[in-house]
Specification:
Helix content is 10%, strand content 39%. The protein has 191 residues and is mainly beta. The protein has a six-stranded antiparallel beta sheet with strand order 1-2-3-11-6-9. A three-stranded antiparallel beta sheet has the order 8-7-10, with no helix packed on it. The protein has a two-stranded antiparallel ribbon with strand order 4-5. 32% of the residues are buried.
Length: 191
């Protein structure tokens, strides 16, 4: 491991903006349309409203080597595609044995998790919530409020990201709006 100098990054809790992000990733509906259960609703939104921003990640650049602890903020905008709330793509870690910690900064969301054997867990997150994603659990976050849902996350640098498994199989559970609020439901498209 190379020797590095310590540093501090300022975080705006309301927006998730970092004072000096090493990278910014924006995911729009066109990037994720197939991940929503109601793909027809995604197509209608794209045709009628254009390509809306679903979420943005701002992070620090660190080498992917033992001992490094990358961290980032994620801001999920409020909204729905059909009945399903805006969400992140979700992923397993490429090294399944690595965990992650999420810390709620503002807004309200759900952390949806599952194992490859089918076990699921859904945890509510608000400002001040510290959520632990254990090793071997895929994870996705969902904004269930009317304002941006913003959280800070930290993981081991060698963990890596496996988005492909989720793109192929999806999550067993969805978070949808029913009777004016969030409901965790079975995903009819889960393979």
């Amino acid at each position: 491991m190379r020797y590095m100098q310590p540093f501090v990054t300022e975080v705006d809790f309301a927006s998730g903006a970092l004072s000096s992000p090493g990278y910014v990733i924006q995911r729009k509906l066109s990037d994720m349309a197939a991940m929503y259960a109601d793909e027809a609703a995604a197509s209608r939104i794209l045709a009628q409203e254009g390509d809306r921003l679903i979420y943005e990640v701002q992070g620090v650049e660190l080498p992917a080597e033992e001992g490094q602890i990358p961290h980032c903020t994620t801001r999920i905008l409020p909204g729905r595609v059909g009945a399903e709330y805006h969400m992140t793509k979700g992923h397993y870690h490429a090294r399944r044995e690595q965990g992650e910690v999420y810390f709620g900064l503002s807004g309200r969301g759900y952390l949806v998790m599952q194992t490859e054997s089918g076990e699921t867990s859904v945890q509510e997150m608000v400002a001040g919530s510290a959520a632990y994603v254990p090793p071997y659990w895929a994870h996705r976050t969902v904004n269930v409020g009317d304002e941006d849902f913003v959280f800070f996350s930290v993981w081991e640098a060698r963990a890596g990201h496996d988005y492909g498994t989720i793109e192929r199989d999806g999550f067993r559970k969805l978070v949808v709006m029913r009777d004016g609020g969030p409901l965790v439901a079975d995903n009819p498209n889960y393979t």
